[in-house]
Amino acid sequence: MKKVVFTLSLMLVAMLGFNGFAQENGQPVVGQTDGPVLTVDKELHDYGTVDYAGDGTCVFTITNTGNAPLIIELCKGSCGCTVPTWSKDPIAPGASTQIVVKYDTKRPGPFNKQVTITSNAVNAPSKIVKIKGSVKPKPVTETETTPPTN
Questions:
Q1: Is 60 helix (H, G, I), strand (E, B) or coil?
Q2: Domain count, the chain
Q3: Distances (CA, A) of 55 to 130, 132, 142
């Protein structure tokens, strides 16, 4: 019985070992993922302190490091104040695209939001990137401090 188990184990190891080498017919190399792979340039964008009604735009660069077209099906902000835009076109292997995220900076105070990227990537079909920062208070204008006259 031990000889049978030993022989089967050797056969399994041999089959897996030979299958793992690079092949002329386009099969992947050991460790290489077959299919689209989503790679993002950063996991977090820190705005720091932003002026009230200031520029709330940031960019995440997405690269397809796989060997098949990457399709970003959906990008969704964690609330209505975080709005991502992206290209619906497939991203070829080795190519990049951008996801532009706009945060509503007419909401004073600290913020910590996320954007969920849904794609056909084999490594991360649902990838989360984050934004954080703080929006300064709304500036007080002269008309807001002057009492009305009758």
A1: strand
A2: 1
A3: 17, 14, 24
List % helix, strand, coil for the chain (3-state, nearest 5).
Answer: 15, 40, 45
Q: What is the pLDDT of residue 8?
A: 43
- Looking at the chain, the number of H-run helices and the number of E-run strands are 2, 8
Q: Can you give the length of the chain in residues?
A: 150
Q: Please, what are the averages of pLDDT over each run of 10 residues along the chain (150 residues)?
A: 47 41 40 86 98 97 98 97 97 98 97 98 97 96 64
Asked, for residue 110, whether it belongs to a domain, the answer is: yes
In a domain, 68, yes or no: yes
The confidence score (pLDDT) of residue 149 equals: 64
Residues 6+ apart with CB under 8 A from 81: 103, 104, 107, 111, 113
Phi and psi at residue 127, to the nearest 5°: -115, 135
Handedness of CA 137, 138, 139, 141 (dihedral sign): negative
Confirm whether 59 is domain-assigned: yes
Q: Which two tokens stand for residue 102?
A: 């706009």
Query: Which CATH number covers residue 87?
Result: 2.60.40.10
